[in-house]
Amino acid sequence: MKYLSRSLFGGAVALMSSVVLAEPAKYLFQPPVTSVARDIFDLHTSMMWIITVIFVAVFGVMFYSIWKHRKSVGHKAAQFHESTTVEIAWTIVPMIILIGMAFPATRVVLEYKDTSNPDLTVKATGYQWKWGYDYIKGEGEGISMLSTLTTPLDQIEGDAPKGENYLREVDNMLTVPVGKKVRILTTADDVIHSFWVPEFGVKQDAIPGFVRDTWFRAEKEGIYRGQCVELCGKNHGFMPIVVNVLSADKYTAWVASQKTASVGAADDAAREWTKEELMARGEKAYASVCAACHQPTGQGLANAFPALAGSKVVAGPAIDQIKLVLGGRKGVFMPNSQMPAQSMLSDTDIAAAVTYTRNAWGNHADPAIVQPSAVKAAR
Amino acid sequence: MSQTTAATVAHANDHALDHGDHAHGHHPTGLMRWLTTTNHKDIGTMYLWFSFTMFLMGGVLALGIRAELFKPGLQLWHPEFFNQLTTMHGIIMVFGAIMPAFVGFANWLVPIQIGAPDMAFARMNNWSFWLLPPAALLLVISFFVPGGATAGGWTLYAPLTSQMGPGMDLAIFALHILGASSIMGSINIVVTILNMRAPGMTMMKMPMFVWTWLITAYLLIAVMPVLAGAITMTLTDRHFGTSFFNAAGGGDPVMYQHVFWFFGHPEVYIMILPAFGIVSHVIPAFARKPLFGYSSMVYATSSIAILSFIVWAHHMFVVGMPAAGVLFFMYATVLIAVPTGVKVFNWLATMWRGSMTFETPMLFAVGFLFVFTMGGFTGLVCAIAPIDLQIQDTYYVVAHFHYVLVAGSLFALFSGTYFWLPKWTGHMYNEAMGKTHFWLSLIFFNITFFPMHFLGLAGMPRRIPDYATQFADFNMIASIGAFGFGFSQLIFLAGVVKCIRGGEKATAQVWEGAEGLEWTLPSPAPYHSFEVPPQVK
Fold first, then answer.
1. Which side of chain A, N or C, has fewer Cβ within a 10 Å radius?
2. How confident is residue A260, by pLDDT bands cut at 50, 70 and 90?
């Protein structure tokens, strides 16, 4: 019955929208890939049926009355104005319907609140404006990454055609194995963010200073796209959550590749970099992290974000600039706003971004180059 | 209801009329009249014009939002300014437009509906109004200070508010002033209703609008100080090193949300209960049939008010409450549907077998009933915690609360304005303009907000300046609807101005089926209403 009602409702909607399979749903929840998301989908469907019935009944009566009980058709007004029986009836009946609605929901609440016995635990940290993922327990333990929007600015500003996954694409996807219970611990570094993947039926605020949790068990491999849903400042709309669900084998291979990459990154941070290497990497790091406020042109925004082109800090000693990037600073224009600390970035990325700003847009700082080792020493 | 308002008015009327016209002579004229007035009608008029001005201002901000969202990509505004638009749109509409509009109605109607000469505290009445323009000014100025207006959402969640510039402080001061004004207004209304009713008007004979406002006033007195507390803690966290909501100092950001929504949920009913009152006058008048279930209406309104204090955390289903907390707030929230349903059924029963005509006030009242109930349905959907998990902080919620706030509160305000405007001005408004205003508002409202349900279900978060391309179609439709809705309101303005300037003379009764003391007064109602209290049997 449940299945029937879902397919009826879903079918009607599918007809209405002529949804192509690969396209995201337009009129309803995205196709669920976890048991919780499916239960929510079913709850919503049965709610909509009940509501449709009440809607037709109530407004059927109203429009009948509007049609028949008009002065213009010569209807004379009755003068009744009270009936205790009727009042009791329309208090009790809705009460029963409401219990019928809330009762099945109770089971789902208990289901989605049960985060016990996970196979894999990942901490998701909200930053202004990106996500950090730390694999805490289970296969892949120790993996740590930042996940930042990769949609280029020219697409956002309309100078280039928008890509297929506009605003919902990232450099590092949260990668998890299929069929395993994944517990997500959420927290935040600055303000409240919220972790949401619609297909999983998972939404949990990420609160600075506190750890909350939620869970999902994805039943199908694939890439699922959500985004931050708690207003977290200027780039709230630009911090998506993209989850890559892999088969057990592929996941194991992915974990191995991450371990190699992190060894490589450690080597990278230890060696000396050339200016060209730093500038190339720095341009990318600047574009994904710094440009949101300081702008791609380095000009900042009047009364909001200081320009880096011609900035005294950038022209000054390298150590001061590194410390500022690591520790953030009080706002220049607004005493209460601040540049968030960027200490979650790697030594190499900070060194590269700092080097980039010291040489871009006509800046000629001395020293021109900052090595990752200098950042490590400054931490 | 017939026995409740079937009032016989002694000779008070003619008496009031005689003195009414002379009374003007003793008062200052021009600007000083409005600055110093203690007359409930003058003050009511000022409240209504103030709220309409704020409504247009909030509306312009909304059009700024919809213009940016017309298509994907950043076209018009930087994201930080977009956030200022959404935040200030919310604050201005809630605190500047809807709330003062209902206080304006209360000023105009409570004394003439209960047979009182004026409000109980006439000077305080003046002061509660004149607090509003400075508060509005602070909100406007905040756009021009460094960093601009506050951009933390109208809910002003900590700790995001700690990052805002001086615009945030201006908003806090403005809200404090608006809150003080609301509390004074409410005390005035409570005292007036409890002490100044005409002889014979027992509590259970009071007009519904008076009942709903009495309950609303108590809600306001209970929760405005709570809001003041929340924003004061925000202020000291920002400037004086306290850590109420700062985890690093031992505070809790979620505590802010609990305090805010303990204010915020009753606030929702503050904005809808007087609307229920207005509709409870309009529907019986045009059905030519007494209100069905008067006493159950009173009990239902009281139940809604009481329940509104124990449902606040349904705004916070995704902060990570324990299962027991989620279940409690889900059940309590669902329970509110019962008294709300009773009200809807009573209005339907009032229409049933009446002899209805559909002048503009009735159109807006029926429109209210239809569209508000749809907002009630989506409210039920939101109340079911697991479903809310998917739609919290999405456009579904935006659709839901605009269905109850625009189609609910605002449509009721329009209905009430057209209903009592002849009594206020002495002229009939232009019916064709009124009807055009209604149909355009209803159609454009639905074009704007209905697609937002789909957007929310499909996964578009609220408060974002740019969105994934699969949301483009419905956003475009919503933006077109919003501009249509916005410009339709100019018809209302033109209709009201035209009515004030002249038009067909209104009779004292105005509407064939209208009942209540206010219709025993001539139109326009004299400057001083009842110098000798009427007798209510």
1. N
2. confident
DSSP letter for each residue of B156-218:
T-TTGGGG--HHHHHHHHHHHHHHHHHHHHHHHHHHHHHH-PPTT--GGGS-HHHHHHHHHHH
**Averaged pLDDT score across all residues of chain B:** 92
Instruction: Tally Cβ neighbours within 10 Å of residue B143.
Output: 15
Is B26 in the active site?
no
Look at residue B299 and tell me if it is in a domain.
yes
Q: What is the pLDDT of residues A176-222, one digit of tens each?
A: 999 999 999 999 999 999 999 999 999 999 999 999 999 999 999 99
Contacts of B31 (CB under 8 A, 6+ apart): none
Render pLDDT for B376-389 as a digit per residue (tens, 0 to 9). Answer: 999 999 999 999 99
| B435: annotated active-site residue | no
Give the ipTM of the model, two decimals please: 0.89
The predicted model gives B324-340 an average pLDDT of 95
Alpha helices, H only, B312-430: 323-351, 360-383, 385-391, 395-404, 411-425
Catalytic residue among B40, B197, B315, B437: B315
Average pLDDT over residues B425-435: 96
Q: CA-nearest residue of chain B to A67? A: B356
Residue B520 falls inside a structural domain: no
State the total domains in chain B.
1
Residue A19 has pLDDT above 60, yes or no: no
- Select which of B265, B400, B423, B427 is catalytic: B265
List CB contacts (< 8 A) between B163 and chain A: 190-191, 233, 334, 336-338
- In angstroms and rounded to an integer, the radius of gyration of the C-alpha atoms of chain A is 28
Q: How confident is the model at residue A26 (pLDDT cuts 50, 70, 90)?
A: confident
User: Which CATH architecture fits A2-71+81-113?
Assistant: Orthogonal Bundle (1.10)
Residue range of the domain that includes B46? 26-505
Query: Could you tell me if residue B10 is inside a domain?
Result: no
**Type of residue found at A2:** K
Q: Which CATH superfamily is domain A271-378 in?
A: Cytochrome c-like domain (1.10.760.10)
Q: Is residue B259 part of a domain?
A: yes
pLDDT of residue A326: 86
Spell out the domain ranges in chain A: 2-71+81-113, 120-265, 271-378
Percent with pLDDT over 70 in chain B: 95
The class level of CATH for A120-265 reads: mainly beta
Cβ within 8 Å, pair A80-B292: yes
Structure tokens at B288: 């030519």
Average pLDDT on A344-366 reads 87
**Catalytic residue selected from B197, B205, B314, B437:** B314
Quote the tokens at residue A85. 């029986």
